[in-house]
Amino acid sequence: MPSFGIMTSPQQVEYRDVLRVWREADAIKELEHAWLFDHLLPIGGAPDGPILEGWTLLSALAAQTERLRLGVLVTSNRIRPPALLAKIAATVDVVADGRLDFGIGAGSRPSWPGAAREYEAHGLPFHDAAHAIGSLAEACTVIRRLWTEEEPFDYDGTYHQLKGAFCNPKPVQPHLPIVIGGRSTPVLRVVAEHADVWNVPGADLEDAVKRSARLDQFCDERGRDPKSITRSIHLQVDYDAPAATRDRIAAALDAGFEHVVLGLPAPYPEGVAEWVADRLL
Fold this sequence. Notes:
alpha/beta
C-alpha cells in the first residue's frame, strides 16, 4: 500500500507555522509521515531570510506529535561528522518514541551555483563530488554500527577515523530505517548497499523511472532484492491546481513509487493538512 506524507521546508517561515501544520497532519490518518530539509541558508526566497536548523527543529516537532513518522529529507552528510549525526538521530528517535526515518545524502551538488554558499558561511569544507560520495558510503557504515554495536569500536576509513566510537542510548528502533536521497549513479550505488528507502525528486518522472531501473541493476549486482528498497518520490504541491497535483501523484504511483512526499509551499494556508487529505488523496 502506498504511504503519503508532507514536507515543510523550514525557510522563510516561522516556527509556529511549521508546528501548526505538523500538529494538523498528526491528527489526519491519511498522512503517515512528515519531513523537513537540511540547509543552513535559504535556497529559495530572500537569501538572507529566516531558516531554521533541521535537526533541532525536528526534535521539537517530535516532542509535540504522537503518530507521524518523521525525518529530514535529506540530511547533508557534509555538515555533521557521522558519529555526531548518529548521536543526534538516536536522540531524536528516543524523543519520538521510535518514529524517526533517518534521511541522508551526499549534500548539495557542486554543479549548483549556490551550493557552496552555506558551507563557506559556516566554515565547513565543500569537497568535490567524489569525496562527498565516498564520505557518504563510510558514514552509512559508521552510523549503522553506532546504532547497533554494544561495545566501543575504532574505525579507520579513507574519509572518517574514529577511536572508541560508541552511542548510548541506542535508537528505540532496532533497525532504524535509512532513507538515502539522490539520483546520480554513484549515489545509487550507495543506495543499493545501505538504504531501506530511496528518495528522488519527482519533477521529471521519466528520469526518476530510469534512475529506479538503474537502482534495480545495482541491487542485482550486489545480490540484493530490489524490492527490499522502498521507492520514494518528492512531488511539489500546487494549491491552485489540485487536479494537476493529483495527476502527478497518480502517475508516480503507476510508475512504482509507493512512498510519496508532498512538498507544501509556504506560506501554509489554514487547514492545509486537511486540504491535502481531502483534495489530493
